[in-house]
From TrEMBL:
One of its GO terms (molecular function) is 3-keto-5-aminohexanoate cleavage activity. Pfam families: BKACE (PF05853). The keyword Metal-binding applies. It comes from Natrialba chahannaoensis JCM 10990. Signal peptide: none annotated. Its cofactor is Zn(2+). This is Uncharacterized protein.
Amino acid sequence: MTCPFLEYRSETSDRQFDESRAYCEAAKQFIQPMRADICNDRYELAHDQHCEIYLEHADEVPAGYGNTGQPASDLQWLLYLAGDPVIITAALTGGVQGKEATPHLPETPEEIGKAAAEAEEADASVVHVHAQKDNGERTFATGCFQEIDDEIRQQADDVISQHSTPSQARANLNL
Ligand code: SF4
């Protein structure tokens, strides 16, 4: 588990870096790459056992965030409950599955637009969508995503539409 005080920053007030660097929010300073192994709990290191800075600031960690064995998604939820701002992304569609998996899964652009509006109502800021052809096959065709986006724009107010992309490089955008 990553230390809750660890951030990656690509700039300071007067400098910019090509690659973001590890920054400790507890110590308010950038940290050396070797120490970042502790921050990221690599190589059997553990921030809550081996970092003196963490141990000094452990009481500032939001309740429930610790080496509890909880999955990261639960920990993000605990941070949200503790008052940290979060960005919620709702994955609306199945990447492979369709209504054969559950009748509640939106497939058509109209259904996806409606689901986006409902997700927005539930405080999501981003909707992640997959597109499929009429025969149910997955597609990355720009026209299909355009239809989905048009419906999302029409039915939702102000959500970001995040398209699924192929996991492999494909030159033909009409797949
Ligand atoms: S492990 Fe220590 S140095 Fe790294 S981010 Fe946490 S408190 Fe800071």
